[in-house]
Amino acid sequence: MPNALSGYRLVMLPVLLYLVSVRSEGWFSVLICVNLVTDILDGWIARKFGLETELGARLDSLADYGTYAAAVYGLYAFKAAELGDWMLLVWLFVGFILVFIGLSLVKFRRSPSLHLYSTKIGGYLQGFLFFTLFAWGFWAPYFAFALVWGMLSFTEGMLILFLLPEMRSNQKGLYWVLRSRH
């Protein structure tokens, strides 16, 4: 079931991109929120029922990156005028994601699937941000908080990638990685 939910998110990626291209903001915002809910559900189901696998972690991370890409494309297409100069923070956030993924590809020859606590919290913050932005509009303090949190969590992820001798999925955070090295 968790892998099916991640698979759903991957299948929805071209649909979301199409909805942006035809300027269907309403359907896009509904379906991107469904993607965000299925992201919460797949991890919860996997942990609750002991269904965590390496394949599932990789599939979930791939679906997460696709959802991020669609969300940023949607923000740019539908909300760039409303966000104005705040789009710079979005591009900075995207830069952190790309450096994080690039570092993993260079060092381990695969995309990261760390699933840190900070990244999970960031996903909730950014998901709620996306929902509120499309439902009620832009609120600068929360927007900045959610994206800065995300950049800090990707920084933690980069530090962990530097420390790990091989890619290991489902790490809790930097504290636990450092503790396990002693």
Q: How far apart lie the N and C ends? A: 37 Å
Determine the strand fraction and express it as a percent band. under 5%
> Low-confidence segments, ≥5 residues, pLDDT <50?
none
Largest sheet: none
Shape: globular
CATH architecture: Up-down Bundle
Average pLDDT reading: 92
Question: Which H/E pattern describes the elements?
Answer: HHHHHHH
Describe the structure.
80% of the residues lie in helices and 0% in strands. It is globular, with a radius of gyration of 16 Å. With 182 residues, it is an all-alpha fold. The longest helix has 30 residues, at 54-83. The chain is built from seven helices and no strands. The protein has a single domain (2-180), classed as Four Helix Bundle (Hemerythrin (Met), subunit A), CATH 1.20.120.
Write the layout of secondary structure elements.
Layout: H1 2-21, H2 25-48, H3 54-83, H4 87-108, H5 117-135, H6 140-163, H7 174-180
Helix pairs in contact: 1-2, 1-3, 2-3, 2-5, 4-6, 5-6
Output the keywords:
182 residues, mainly alpha, Four Helix Bundle (Hemerythrin (Met), subunit A), 0% strand
Give a concise summary.
By secondary structure, the chain is an all-alpha fold. It has helices spanning 2-21, 25-48, 54-83, 87-108, 117-135, 140-163, 174-180. It has one domain: Four Helix Bundle (Hemerythrin (Met), subunit A) (Up-down Bundle).
